[in-house]
Amino acid sequence: MKCCLDKMTTDCRDIDPQDHMIMKENVNIGRFLTMIYSATTFGNTFFYIFIMPNFTETIVDDRNVTLRSLPYPSDYYLFDVQFTSAFEIIYFIQSLVAYITCTIRSGTCSLAANFVTHACGQCEMIVTHINDLVDGYREELNTLDNRMRDIVQHHSRLIRFVADVEYIFNKYVSWTY
């Protein structure tokens, strides 16, 4: 994962002024996707943890004991969950675990969105370089061979970056979902 982040840092540092706007647009798209996913995930978790248990039907058993529902109900054989302090402790632990899970998933989604939008920005830059190759706008690389070499090297780096990202998400991150 560090190698992918290093490649992103290098790509952003070694960028031409003409390509800066392309990368800036893609960074904003990645940030927007991260905000949407995080807001949706945390909002749904808040709704599920705090709102849903209050709207579920309360059950009163034959001993006149009110049975409250937990966000993640399960059978607890060692102790009675309906006992006040046990219920509150279990409720807090379930809420904490849910928000830790949301944080991990939001971070993973943010990482994926930033990697993907970085790769898309690099693809757009390659397309711009190819168009410039035909039109001849890039004057600093005055020969056709130098411009073609730059495009091929950039494309090769992009393919390695995408392969590294795919390896990371298939091997290490796929267990998150």
Report on the structure:
Pfam families: 7tm_6. Its main location: membrane. GO terms for molecular function: odorant binding; olfactory receptor activity. InterPro entries: 7tm6_olfct_rcpt (IPR004117). By secondary structure, this protein is an all-alpha fold. The chain has one domain. Helices cover 73% and strands 2% of the residues. It has a two-stranded antiparallel ribbon. Helix 2 runs antiparallel to helix 3 and helix 3 runs antiparallel to helix 4.
Oligomer status: single chain
Mean pLDDT: 82
Count of DSSP H/I helices:
4
**Low-confidence runs of at least 5 consecutive residues:** none
Indicate how many domains the architecture comprises.
Answer: 1
How would a crystallographer describe the biggest sheet? 2 strands, antiparallel
Across the major sheet, the strand order is: 1-2
Distance between the termini: 18 Å
Shape: rod-shaped
* Overall number of strands: 2
The helix/strand class is mainly alpha
Order of helices and strands: HHEEHH
Helix content: over 70%
Rg (C-alpha, Å)? 26 Å
Share of β-strand residues: under 5%
Keywords: Cell membrane, Membrane, Olfaction, Receptor, Sensory transduction, Transducer, Transmembrane, Transmembrane helix
Membrane topology: Multi-pass membrane protein
Subcellular location: Cell membrane
Pfam family, one: 7tm_6
